[in-house]
Amino acid sequence: MGAMDKGDTRSAKRTIERAADQAEDHPALTTLARGGFIVLGILHILIGWIAVRIATGSGGSGDEASNSGALATIAEAPGGQFLLWVAVIALAALGLWQLSQLLAGEDLKERAKGAVMAMVYFSLAVTTSTFARGGSTSDGETATDVTATVLSQPWGVVLVVVAGLVVLGAGVYNLWKGATRDFREDLEAGAGSGQVGTAIIITGTAGYVARGIAFGILGVLIVIAGWAHDPEQAAGLDSALRTLGEQPFGSVLLIIVGIGLILYGAYSIARARYVRM
């Protein structure tokens, strides 16, 4: 009976892996998933643009350099809600593609990365659907509320500090990926050749470094929020960028990071064409 159970388990695992491989290679899914990278690129361009406006003092009081701020900008444009529904579909497809990588991944690292990124893309798809329906939300308020809820639980401080260290680690990883140009492994062979390839590598390098700085600051703020038991410190990406802007020469630094985020957006759009799928 035990041998049969093990055989059934192996058979089910092979079936799941075959289904995941088929889903990963399905033309419709991969095409829509590439569209998800375009959506991510547009969002980063808008976040970077808002950050530059904040740094130069030309932004409005309600501007938020975050996904929510970028989505609100799209929603206010002509045909914005239709475009947001298109974005929901593309982001959901990107999440499904990452999920197929989780199921078909050959090692633990691939599976873990697929799981995390799938959750990120599905979560962003849900947030985008809120704006597509005519609603709104704020990344900063959501982050503050979630942090306050966690801090009120047993071991809440530890959990928030650990979460901050994870985000800080993501920032360091992005810095490393940009500085070493390790992101080239995500692209098809030959994507880094010629003038177009050189432009992709330059935008990717600058973009990952900028993301690394932004997430690094955010991670530190979340750690401070847990240590000081102050959820207001963990107010999301917009808060992290504004904190950078408040430092000596902060406006210049914020402009540089904002431009870097715009370049990451350009890289992400190019990645839609050249990503290894």
Structure characterization notes:
The protein has about 280 residues and is mostly helical. It has one domain (about 1-275). It contains 10 helices and no strands. α2 (about 25-55) runs antiparallel to α10 (about 250-275) and α7 packs antiparallel against α8 (about 195-225). The longest helix is centred in the last third of the chain and has 34 residues, at about 195-225. The protein is globular.
Set down the secondary structure blueprint:
Layout: H1 2-25, H2 27-56, H3 67-76, H4 80-104, H5 108-132, H6 139-151, H7 156-180, H8 194-227, H9 236-245, H10 250-274
Major sheet details = none
Distance between the termini: 40 Å
Number of helices: 10
Cα gyration radius (Å): 20 Å
Pick out the low-confidence regions. Answer: none
How many DSSP-defined strands? 0
| Count of discrete structural domains | 1
User: How would you state the average pLDDT, rounded?
Assistant: 87
Protein name: DUF1206 domain-containing protein
Transmembrane segments: 32-52, 82-103, 115-135, 155-176, 208-229, 249-270
Pfam families: DUF1206
Domain DUF1206: 36-101, 115-181, 206-274
Task: Provide key terms for this protein.
277 residues; single chain; 10 helices; mainly alpha; 0% strand; 80% helix; globular
Short note summarizing the structure:
It contains 10 helices and no strands. It has helices spanning 2-25, 27-56, 67-76, 80-104, 108-132, 139-151, 156-180, 194-227, 236-245, 250-274.
